[in-house]
Each structure stands twice: as structure tokens, then as C-alpha cells.
Specification:
Number of domains: 1
Shape: globular
Order of helices and strands: HEHEEEEEE
Strand content: 25-35%
């Protein structure tokens, strides 16, 4: 994330790891496509390119675990540190939190 902000990716420097609500707002049951590795059916707008598994990390941690979101099933789980590999989907700060979809 620091590297993205230093490079000002897309002309922006406010990239961050998504929190639970932000990552859930990217999940779209109506948009399904097969990952590039043809391993998973993912539910997210295909504008996002995926080449790895379905688990994406959030910014939320507790003790020695991190919260991960799965774009295949829409599940969110706490994973012990080092238990599995995941991917990061950086997001930008939103000035209007009401734009997020609340999926609780």
C-alpha cells in the first residue's frame, strides 16, 4: 500500500486496505466470471482482474489473525497469521460512506 501511495497510482495517494464494509461492497452476486487461473467463479465486476485465489485481505486484524473476504462464496472469516495466502485489493478513501453497500 505504501508503494502504491508513493507511486501515486492513478494520480492518487490515498490508497488503503479495505475494511469489512468496503470489501463487501465490491461483492456482486449478479456479476460472476471465472478467474484467470480458471479455479474460482468470482462475484465482482470483471473490470477487476484476478489471477489468484478468492481470498482477499481486509485492514482488520485481531491478536494474530486477519479478516479475509472470499469473492467466490461471499464469505468473510478470521484466518490465523500464516495459515494461508491471500491477495490484496487496494481501495481509495471514500468521502461518502453512504455509497457503500451494507451487507450485514
Amino acid at each position: 500500500i505504501k508503494k502504491l501511495n508513493k507511486q501515486e497510482l492513478g494520480g492518487f495517494y490515498d490508497w488503503q486496505l479495505p475494511n469489512k464494509l468496503e470489501i463487501q461492497s465490491l461483492y456482486e452476486i449478479a456479476h460472476s466470471f471465472q478467474s484467470r487461473g480458471k479455479t474460482f467463479i468470482l462475484h465482482i465486476d470483471p473490470v477487476f482482474e484476478f489471477s489468484y485465489g478468492s481470498c482477499f485481505w481486509t485492514s482488520q486484524t485481531k491478536l494474530s489473525a486477519a479478516l479475509g473476504f472470499e469473492f467466490d462464496a461471499g464469505d468473510i472469516h478470521w484466518y490465523p497469521q500464516g495459515s494461508m495466502s491471500g491477495t490484496v485489493r487496494a481501495v481509495r478513501l471514500s468521502s461518502d460512506p453512504s455509497l457503500l453497500i451494507k451487507n450485514q
